[in-house]
Specification:
The protein has 15 helices and 15 strands. It is α/β, with parallel strands linked by helices and 462 residues long. The chain folds into three domains: 95 residues, Rossmann fold (3-Layer(aba) Sandwich), CATH 3.40.50; 220 residues, Alpha-Beta Barrel (TIM Barrel); 82 residues, no CATH class. Strands 10-9-8-7-6-5-12-11 form an eight-stranded parallel β-sheet, with helices on one face. The chain has a four-stranded parallel β-sheet with strand order 2-1-3-4. It has a three-stranded antiparallel β-sheet with strand order 13-14-15, with helices on both faces. Strand 14 and strand 15 form a beta hairpin. Helix 5 packs across helix 6 and helix 11 crosses helix 12. It is elongated. The relative contact order is 0.10.
Amino acid sequence: MDERILFLTGRLAHDSLCREIEGLAKRSFSYRVQELGLQVAGLMTADMIRRRLPAPEDAQRIIVPGLCGGDVEALSHTYGMPVERGPRDLKDLPEFFGTAGRRPDLDEHRVTIIAEIVDAPHMGVEQILERAVAYRADGADVIDLGCLPGTGFPHLEESVSALKHEGYAVSVDSLDPPDLVRAAAAGADYLLSLKESTLHVAGEGAGTPVLIPERPSDLDSLYRAAEKLAGQGRRFLLDPVLEPIHFGFTESLLRYHAVRRRYPDAEIMMGIGNLTELTDADTTGMTAVLMGVVSELDIGAVLTTEVSPHAHTSVREADVARRIMWAARRDGNLPRRYHGGLMALKDRKPFPHTCDEVMQIAAAVKDPSFRIQLTREGIHVYNRDGRQLATDPFALYPGLAVDGDASHAFYLGVELGRAQIAWQLGKRYLQDNELEWGVSVRGGNDGIHRSGGAPGGGVAGE
C-alpha cells in the first residue's frame, strides 16, 4: 500500500509543488498538498504549523518546506507521525525522494574505514587521542598508528593502550617487524603490514595481520602467506597495494581484481591514500571512483590518510562514498541522486529555473526587497522596480540604487559575490544561504547521521 504524505506549502508555491510531485518517477506514495494560509512557504515555522494544522487523519507523514524554521522534530510527537523538512528548492524533490520514491537510506555500509595518524611518533598520547576523536566523528572505524622509518616510537604501547581504553579499534602500520611485535603485545587489533618474510610476527599476538606482497608485482608471495595463515586458521586481510599514478596504478588495480578472482571470499583492504594524497586533484572525485572499485570487488576495508592539506576531508569523503555505493548497489542503481556530499565544486542541477520562469516570478513581485536568482544566462536581481541580468556583480551595482544605505549595499555585495561564484562554477545558489561545498568544508554538516564510528569495530562481515 502506498504511503500517504501531506505536503505543506504557501500560496505562491502550491501549483509548482503539485507539478513537481506529479512528475516524480517511480512515485510510491499518494499525497495531498495543503496551503497553510501564508504567501511564501519559506516563512513557515513549526509553531505556525502547530497552531494552524489540525491533526491530519489522511496522512502517514508530513513534509514541510525546507526553509521552515523552528523545532520540526517536535512536531512528530505532536502529530504522532514523522514530520520532516523537504528540500530547500521544490525542484529538488526527485533527489529528496531518491530513485525508489522515498528518501534514500544511507544508514548502512559494508566497508570499514581505517584512518591513519601518519605522524603518530611525533605526537603525544593526548594529541593522538584528540586526532582519534576527530577521525571517529568523521566516520572512521579503526585508528591506525603509523610508524616512521628510522624514527623512534617509545610511547607506542602507551598509545595503543590509551586508544583501547577509550573504546577504539587500533591498528599499527610499520614495515619494521619490531614495531609490529610491540604493537601485537600491546593489544593492537590489526597489524599493517606483514609479508611472507615477516609472517612470524603474526604469532606474537591476536591482532589480525594485513598481508602485502614482498614486492607489489609479486602476488605469488602474497598467496603463499595467505595459504599459510589460512592453514593455521588465522584471520587476515589481503592488500595487493594500490600504487600512485605513473608508478603502477593501473597494474595495481588489476592485482586487486586478480586477488578477488582467486579468493572470492577473502577479506581485502585497499590503501586509497596513494591516490588521494599523491595526485593534485580534488579528492572527492577520486574517492568516489575508488570506492566504486571497492564496491564492485567487495573490498571490506580501506586505509586512508589526511596528510596533504588538500586531502584534509578524506575520512569524511570515504564515509559518504561507502554509504552511497552500498545504497546504489543494494538498489541496483547507478550511484546518482543519493547524496550530494561528494559534489563539492559543481551541482548536478545548478540552475533549476529557466530565464522565463524567473521573469514570471519577478513580474509578480510588489515590494522593494531585492531577490537574486541564477539561470544559465547569469545573475538576476529584481524587485518591484524592475529586473537586471548580468554575470558580473559590478555591472549590476549602478542599477541597485543603494548608495545611501551601507548595510543594504554590504548585504547585496555578499549575496552577489556568492551568486557570481555559484554561476561561474555551476553550483546551486539560494539567497540568504551559504553555498554548499559537500564534505569539503571542515566541520561542515553533510547530512549523514553518524554514530561516531564504531569503537571496537572491525571489517564488515567479520
